[in-house]
Predict the 3D structure of the following.
Amino acid sequence: MSGGGRGQLPFVRTLILAALLLCFSCRKSESGFQIRSRVASSGDELSTALQQSVGSTMRPGNRLEVVENGRIFDALIEAVGRSRLSVNAELYIWRKGAASDRVLKALAARTAEGVRCRVLLDAVGSIDLGDELKAGFAAARCELRVFRPLSGPDKDARNHRKVVVVDGRIGFTGGFGLDDKWLGNGKSDKQWRDTNVRVEGPAVSEMQETFAENWQEAGGELLALREFPAPENAGPARAAFVRSDGAPVVTRAERLTQLAIAAAHKRLWIENAYFAPSRAILDLLARRAADGVDVRIVTAGRSSDSKLAFFWAQTDYGELQKRGVRVWEYQASMIHAKTMLVDDALVVIGSVNLDPLSLNELEEGALIAEDPAAAARRAKDFEEDCLLSKEQR
């Protein structure tokens, strides 16, 4: 979960994570769910495996652009500036500041021309949503709704998704929030390191469905038919957007993570903010390394906004390292990315952390795509991040 911030958020998150870590330490080996088959990392076999595991099919015709750090705001504002119909956003965090001011200004310019703007924020992630920011949404003519008030029965089942959809044709997802900590290049203490993706093509309709589902739960109306345009062939990538809900036994977030690991035959490079995965995931990582797969993990170092998650992660390093997994801790700033790079072409980019909250309790989402160009970009950035990290021995 995106931790840190002002107000009550750090305390609330720490309490929730502490409770879940305590109970999860007892259930890591109890669920019994594990993908035991090897899976291809490309082609129809991969798509069929994904369909069986999470109910999504990888469809061709998508175009991806990896968007890192503060560039996400430039990409969002460019897309908003071209909008003609609607901008729909669901985010865990939106706080006042320079980033918020830039995005709200861009939204106001389009809503003045009749573009519909809807914003859904989580009640915990945006717990410090104040009158000034609410006034900003009103001035920009954006309809604002809050997801699952803290007084409700599902107070621990938060919406951690990061999804923005423009005109039903352009989608954004990743680890970002609307906060000034996501400005910059991720190389200084106050600028978080994150990875996001801009996508066009059939996968965007799944992102729109994800927003619509949560918007409806928050009391919003059904989206109009025109907000689900017929998918266009925007590029060469095969992709799907996978959404996950909290579940009592096994979530799609857990299934997707295991499937990506099972698909690795040569390379499995993971960047993740909070590394406290299930026993099944740990076992699969060790198995892939033992099979000769180049398994590397970059996670948060001492700049982590969650010291509890930081220390918990270190309890698993030794076991993995003995089996050949290499682990780095990012030193330049807080690394908040949630990505997986598998073999030569498969990438996963989204909001799923490898911790008990994401893997069990939260509303999450991730784009999985077969795209050699995006994979090459992720490999380059991963290697650069390793240079700014300390390998654990």
About this structure: DSSP finds eleven helices and 15 strands in the chain. Residues 9-16+27-391 form a domain with the Endonuclease; Chain A fold (CATH 3.30.870.10).
